[in-house]
Structures
1.
Amino acid sequence: MINSLLQHFTPITEDVAENIDKVTFNEKYGYRNLPVVFRKAFHNWDVKEKFLSETVGNYFPQDYRFELELPNENAPKMKMTFTQYKDYIKAGNSEGYFKVQLSGLDDYFEFNSPIPFDCWYKSYSEGNPNIKLRWLYHGGGGTQTMLHTDVWSTNAWNYLIEGTKLWFIYPLTATREVLANTSRYEIGTFLENSDSFIKNAVLPLVCIQKPGDMVFIPGNIPHSVYNLSTTLSITENFINETCYDRVLDYFKKRGNINNLNKMNQIVAKGFQNLNKTQL
C-alpha cells in the first residue's frame, strides 16, 4: 500500500534538520501555511517518556473514563478507561479511538510545547483556568480521524510517540470541494478502491508519520489521519503571529462579538509580548 501511495500522490514537505528554531519555522512554514513533517528535530523530545502506552494509563485519575471518538456519529456511545481501551484494541476492535483533552489534567500531563509552536491563547494571563488546546490520541490499527479542518482555523502540531500514521492533506484551494464531498476524499475510500480514488478532482499530499516525527498542519487545510498500526500521539492547536488573522476571521464570520472581543485581546497581548522579545 505504501508503494501505491507514493506512486499516486505527492509527499508533503520533509524537514530533516537536526533542530528548528522559531524564526526559521515561521519563515519556512508558519507564514507560508506549508504543511511539513519534521523527521529529526523532535526525536529527542523528553515528553515522549511521559506518554508511553505501557505507563501513560497510570497518570490518569483512577477509573477516569472517556468517550471514544467514533466515525459514525449515530453509533452508541462508548466510555472506557485508558486500560480498557488497550484491551479493546488488543481484541481486534477498530471502531473508535481514545481521545482526551489534556487541559483539564495538567496535574498529570503538564509539559512545555516546542518553542516554534508557542500559543498566545494558552499564554493569556487573564481568566481561570487557562485552556490549552491539546489532546492525547490512542488508536488501534484501522481507526481514523475523519476529514476536517481544525478548531477556529488554528494551526496544529501532532507528535507521534508510537506506531505509524497515514495523513491525507488537501490544498487550501480545494477546501470547499473536499468538505462538500468528504466520503469521496476520505482515506478509507482510497483503501477500498484506489483506482476510483485517483480519478478525483483533487488529490491529497500524503505523509507516513513514524515515531518521533512531528507534523505541522496549517489552519483551514482539510486533512484526515489513518492509523496503520496501534498509535499514541499528542497534539496541540495554537494561535500566534502565523495564524491570528485566520482565527479572528473565523470569529468575525460567526458574529459572536464576545468571543471576537476576547480573541482580539489575546492577539493584542500576544503581539505585545512578541514585540518585547524582539527588542
2.
Amino acid sequence: MAESTQMSDIALIQRVEAAALWAWPPQETARDEGWLLRAAGGHTRRANSVQALVFASGADVERAIGRVESWYAKRGLPSCFQLTDRHAPAALDRVLEQRGYARLTPVAVLLCDPAGIEPPKGPRIEIDTRPTPQVMNAVCDPHWDAAARRARAELFARIRRPLAFAVLFEGVQPVAGGLCVLDRELAGIFTLRTAVHARGKGHGRAVARRLAAWARGTGARQLYLQVEEGNTASLALAASLGAQPAYGYWYRELDAQAANA
C-alpha cells in the first residue's frame, strides 16, 4: 500500500475504527487491558476479533493473549486479532506470530471527500433503510447458506447509526448493492457487491457514487472504504472516487493446530 501522510495518525485510525465498530457491530464485547474483544457468532472476521488499538502500560501481553484465547474458545470461535499500522503494544504482531497466529486478509483503508463525487446518471438505484429481501439479494453472495445469510441480516439489524442501502436494478432484478453508515461527519461504504452476470458494467461504481451522495446529503464530510489489498477491482473503484490510502489493517488468527499444540 502506498505511503500516506496520515499513516502515523493514531487519532485518525481510532476515529475511523470507532465509526466502523458502530457500522459493523458485534453481538457482544469485552475489555481486557484496553483491548476490545468482539464476538458475533462467526460469519465475519471483523466482528469476531480483538480491536488492538490501546493496551495498558505495564500489562503482561502474554497473559492477556491467554485470556483472549479462553474468551473466544468459550464461544466456539478462533482467537483473532485485528491489527492496524498502530496496534498496541507495538510488538504484538511479532508475539502473535511466535504463538502460531497466521497473518490474514490485509486491508487498505482509504478516505475521500464525498463532495467531490458526482451522483450516477442512468441506472435505476433505490435507497432503503432496512435489509429487505431485495436488499439482501443484492448484497449477499447467493452461495451463502441460510445461517450465513441470517447472521448478516442480524448484523444489519444491530446497526444503531443512520444508514442507507442502495440497490441497482436491471429491469426488475436487483443486480448490485451496497451499504453506507454515517457516524457524525464520517461515513463508511460496506458490502459492495455486483451479481456475477452483471459485472463489468460499472454498477459497483454507480452504487458507491449513489451512497456517497446520500452520505453527503446527511452531513458526511469524509468517506472511508475498506478494501482487501488483493482486490484490484475494488481498489480501482475506490481510486475512481478519489479515495487515498490512510492506513492498513490485517488479522492474526490462531491456527487450530497451534491452539492444540
